[in-house]
Amino acid sequence: xxxxxxxxxxxxxxxxxxxxxxxxxxxxxxxxxxxxxxxxxxxxxxxxxxxxxxxxxxxxxxxxxxxxxxxxxxxxxxxxxxxxxxxxxxxxxxxxxxxxxxxxxxxxxxxxxxxxxxxxxxxxxxxxxxxxxxxxxxxxxxxxxxxxxxxxxxxxxxxxxxxxxxxxxxxxxxxxxxxxxxxxxxxxxxxxxxxxxxxxxxxxxxxxxxxxxxxxxxxxxxxxxxxxxxxxxxxxxxxxxxxxxxxxxxxxxxxxxxxxxxxxxxxxxxxxxxxxxxxxxxxxxxxxxxxxxxxxxxxxxxxxxxxxxxxxxxxxxxxxxxxxxxxxxxxxxxxxxxxxxxxxxxxxxxxxxxxxxxxxxxxxxxxxxxxxxxxxxxxxxxxxxxxxxxxxxxxxxxxxxxxxxxxxxxxxxxxxxxxxxxxxxxxxxxxxxxxxxxxxxxxxxxxxxxxxxxxxxxxxxxxxxxxxxxxxxxxxxxxxxxxxxxxxxxxxxxxxxxxxxxxxxxxxxxxxxxxxxxxxxxxxxxxxxxxxxxxxxxxxxxxxxxxxxxxxxxxxxxxxxxxxxxxxxxxxxxxxxxxxxxxxxxxxxxxxxxxxxxxxxxxxxxxxxxxxxxxxxxxxxxxxxxx
Length: 627
Known about the structure:
By secondary structure, the chain is mainly beta. The chain contains four helices and 50 strands. The protein folds into three domains: 8-149, Immunoglobulin-like; 161-239, Immunoglobulin-like, CATH 2.60.40; 248-378 and 388-458 and 470-613, 7 Propeller (Methylamine Dehydrogenase, Chain H). A hairpin with a 4-residue loop joins strand 29 and strand 30. The chain is globular.
């Protein structure tokens, strides 16, 4: 294993590597980050620090490679440090296992060491140089070696650590008992169980790690999970009796769409939802016409199309009031790059889809991907990729206040709640503002910008769960801004259970909300939603709905056989479960052929356990999750 490099001090900024030194693919996954701690060791404020990475043997080294599988964070933002303040800059490491930028990944079973140059500068133009670090005055550099082992995921590796336990049940029946172990980043590995009378036992030798999680399950019993420390302190694992799940979801309605949908918003009171168009897999110049014909659509919970509106382009930014009376949209700013129009923010009548007002032009807050409307419809916020933010009158579009370019990183999350506006941006910070004047209440480090379903607030518990593009999951106290915990999980989104006790993400990692303790993993990649009673984790993707208990044990999995256009690379990134738990809405994002399945509405129905649904537990995920 490489050693940690000595920290470097450049212009009163201490550069220190604090991330993992050695990663094993089977047990650590590929969705991990390099982490660099930057600390202001001087006595004056330091503004506008930019972060990048160059990797020997990858790309045009020593030119930077902070893109694709090595994306850097801040992402569309910069770092400001007060005296004594620290910030954790990051970059993805998944590119090690990809062939982009001329990389040759480590062969199966082989360990390969890469040399990273972590770079900081006050000048963005420094990253245009073929060798940025050659300018020692303009660029600070810390070099660090990291090793990666491309180990097989098919079998559990052995080692000096022993995990063992004895198991009983209240009923004395341990039908289909199963013991599995994993790390926060790996698949589950089944362990051999020996039974004798009413007791069962297991013992397995594994590599020395502090983050093992052990799951014990059986038919009609409550599943249990343990850390290695908890297991060692447990004399006997007793599985309490539990009733089987008594429902599943079945397709109730579906409809096609000319293009995929980036996000959606729901009105529970009206039992309706609005979908905003957007895809990531446009690849052909002819797709410009498809983008230009994108439609904002409103549906009832039963799947009836209520209205549609063509804004002239994709609208990644959009929102609706809870009573469904007003809809706001912001067209994707690349409309100007394709010569298809200008930046545009608009408001629609939520009942008819008619345009109420529209702003177009060069105002900086219009060049963005995020728009929100306050619950009463009186205020609209629009945030830009350049860090500008505007607050407008919801009835007229008149500007009330604005914050200039560079105030934030690229704005990628705007949420109104209880008289405040939450802003999540590319500088890795979540900021809480007073709506009245835009003054700051608090700001907290969350790693990156929150993804589409990366902001979940539970007003009863006073907690906010955040899932970011940097693949971090965190929980924040909504009143104080205190970060209760932050973990690098590999997942982009986060959701809090209705009772406020649990948090889950796209990879099916399930945490205790206040402590961050990992209590379960499904190993399934799909939008995560808790059941309305907080007892199950429901994961929805285009064509499939899975239900697991809170240990991550798969209980039911149903596929939509009618969606015959579904193929590789097509996915959903927005889904919603109604408050009563009866209706599950799934919107398709990417589609390789225009006019494919756009919306699927699932209804609660008879149970379909695995033996009836024809589905086996999901195996190794392509991108393991994490804790």
